[in-house]
Amino acid sequence: MSTNSNNEQSGHNEGYNFAYLDEQTKRMIRRSLLKALSIPGYQVPFGSREMPLPYGWGTGGIQVTASVIGPKDRLKVIDQGADDTTNAVSIRRFFQMVADVATTEKVLEASIIQTRHRIPETPLNEGQIIVYQVPTPDPLSKIDPRESETRKMHAYAEYGVMQLTLYEDIARFGHIAKTYDYPVLVNGRHLMSPSPIPKFDNPKMQDNPAIQLYGAGREKRIYAIPPYTTVKSLDFDDHPFSMQSWSGCCSLCGSTTSYLDEVITDDSGGRIFVCSDTDYCNDRQAQLLCDEHSEVQT
Amino acid sequence: MSLRSSHQFSTSPTLKPGLADPIFDAQSVFRAALSANAYPGRRVSIDRALDAPQPLATSTAMLCLSLMDLETPVWLDRQTAAGDVPQWLRFHCGAPLVERAVGARFAIITDTGALPHLNEFYAGEIQYPDRSATLIVQVPSLTEGPTSVWTGPGIRDSASVRISGLPSWFWSDWDVNADHYPLGIDVFFTSGNALVGLPRTIKVEA
Ligand SMILES: [Zn+2]
């Protein structure tokens, strides 16, 4: 890829195109994104480019973000719910370098949120864009690895075989074993992988006011869920969809409604549960301190 | 690619300019289009200036410059094709112009009285419905005209939308388009510096 056509008008690192991609590539991805919104949940093929990060590091999500982002944006990047993991830090630095873009850890300050493995606990607003990094875009690829076959299944909404796979779980384990990347039916028509988010997050995709975009770099697909769209997790009348739940609460902020990670605290096997969404947890801890403080004063 | 910077090769001294800031204007216009398509029925304004060629409105011309290139065959209605637009499009976008509506990825309509029926445009393939045409339909007003009620993805409850200048058969053609989902065309209505998105998922009561 050519990296020698600098843009004189922007303040970003010289030697790169703004947001790394050349303008023709951005146009191609932008057209794909518009069609993706017009056919919710349908996988649009796109000409994925080589990125300076390896596959598995969110090259699909990065290309989507790079095609969307501009000087007025503020970017948040999370990995497993945290802003400070290696993957999130690398991607945030990448966009600071190639797009000179403002960043934040606060969900409500961000105009674009790129994510791997979580949807923030704080509800999103209209106009916000969430970009998911997707390793395996087609939920049918485990049933048939040939894209020529899965495209036919999507074309005619032949999703019975997917239902059957889930039902085999029920026959074997008494419940559906899948706990993340749990397939959804979008707008009553297209079967879609939500990316490897926990199924706990699936209900957040439904009727979300924000724009949800999905990019798979290695598999060269883009798809989307428009705001206020029906997103139904596959299930059965006798085995309705259910989310993970915990008997306790977050040891740091006391939340009983967030997704919790188990953390080992010492060598003798002591363990606690804490929020996976660190920004949400930090906010709640700060609020608790604040509340305690004002109680002391009154 | 340096199509935009080689002004000395302009074949007409009156050829109107392209985007003043090719990178950030295109990004800003795309975001307007993304919003319009994500929130159908809402008027989205483009806050960038352009000296557009007749008969294109600013928003129509901005969409062309931001989304079209040598990979997107474009069809123009007779009124649009009559002036400088063909030359302007070839020069700034490198987009091939096609004679038949069915061969186009983008179609530009400025004379809504002569709008072809919607089934004359390409609706995509059953395995690749994303390959369908996107129509840019320039209308006299997006704030006046008959009211229609839109429902579907991107709209909470319903949206009341006023668009002037559409032929009387337009919404019955649109019903047929929706019946072929996931095949179907998508539309941007443009007027002045504003646009309204109408993706194929939207049901309309006119
Ligand atoms: Zn917590």
Describe, in plain words, how this protein is organized in 3D.
The complex is a heterodimer of chains A (298) and B (206). Chain A is built from 7 helices and 12 strands. Chain A has 298 residues and is α/β, with parallel strands linked by helices. Chain A has 2 domains: 3-136 and 191-231, Rossmann fold (3-Layer(aba) Sandwich), CATH 3.40.50.11310; 260-297. In chain A, strands 1-9-8-5-4-2-3 form a 7-stranded mixed beta sheet. Chain A has a 3-stranded antiparallel beta sheet with strand order 7-6-10. In chain A, α1 (23-38) packs across α2. The longest helix of chain A is centred in the last third of the chain and has 20 residues, at 278-297. The radius of gyration of chain A is 20 Å and the shape is globular. Chain A starts with 22 loop residues before the first helix and ends with a helix. The model of chain A is unreliable at 1-11 (pLDDT under 50). Chain B is α/β, with parallel strands linked by helices and 206 residues long. Chain B has a single domain (22-205), classed as 3-Layer(aba) Sandwich (Rossmann fold). Chain B contains 5 helices and 9 strands, in the order αβαβααββββαβββ. Chain B has helices at residues 22-38, 58-67, 78-81, 85-93, 170-179, and strands spanning 44-45, 74-76, 106-109, 134-138, 147-151, 159-162, 186-191, 194-198, 203-205. In chain B, strands 1-8-7-4-3-2 form a 6-stranded mixed beta sheet. A 3-stranded antiparallel beta sheet of chain B has the order 6-5-9. In chain B, α1 (22-38) packs across α2 (58-67). Chain B is globular, with a radius of gyration of 16 Å. The N and C termini of chain B lie far apart (45 Å). In chain B, 50% of the residues are buried. The model of chain B is unreliable at 1-10 (pLDDT under 50). The chains are: A alpha/beta (298), B alpha/beta (206). The A-B interface holds A 7, 9-10, 18, 22-24, 26-28, 30-40, 42, 44-45, 67-71, 126-127, 151-152, 154-156, 187, 189-190, 207, 209, 211, 225-230 and B 1, 21-24, 26-28, 30-31, 33-35, 37-39, 66-69, 71-72, 126-130, 132, 134, 153-156, 181-182, 184, 186, 199-201. Residues 250, 252-253, 255, 274-275, 281, 284 of chain A line the site of zinc ion.
